[in-house]
Amino acid sequence: AINKVERSLIRTDADEVTYNLHVMLRFDLELDLLEGRLAVKDIPDAWRARMKADLGLAPPDDRDGCLQDVHWYYGGLGGGFQGYTIGNILSAQFYAAAVKAHPGIPAEIVAGEFGTLHGWLTKNLYRHGSKFTPNDLIKRATGEPMTMRPYLAYLRKKYGELYSLPAGA
């Protein structure tokens, strides 16, 4: 049940495959607002149109549409939502780098042991605090700049196996 991929109206209820579509919708609408291409009064219609186009769903009301997140109506506009997707991307990139350095990590996690992974995270990320810029820290820890490849590989592997998808789907 926790791995079921299903379109949803609500970002916080979305599965990990479609979650980032919710984030992209918000980012695009925020950008349109900030650059003057979208008026505040037009957000509900723009939201419904975008949800229909991206996920094939239309919210029945604004509560389940553009007002579902507290971010906008408490005044947080611009720059927040993409942090969720960046976190998803980086988590997979850091995990892939940790597993490359210590191939036994997946088996340890299955056994409920997280010491090796925690040690890698401490050595490569935590101990540095804000000593490096984010881009420098990512490259130091993983050997390359932020990339979506590990995240997409993770999703393809996990959901390819769960849903018996053909390779490369």
Mean of residue pLDDT values = 93
Structural shape: globular
Strand content: under 5%
Please report the total strand number as a whole number.
0
Low-confidence runs of at least 5 consecutive residues: none
Helix content: 40-55%
H and E string: HHHHHHHH
Q: Report the C-alpha radius of gyration, rounded.
A: 19 Å
Query: What structural class do the secondary elements suggest?
Result: mainly alpha
How would a textbook summarize the main sheet?
none
CA(first)-CA(last) distance: 22 Å
Tally of alpha and pi helices: 8
How does this structure look, described?
The chain has 169 residues and is mostly helical. Helix content is 54%, strand content 0%. It has eight helices and no strands. The longest helix has 20 residues, at 82-101. The protein is globular and about 50 Å long.
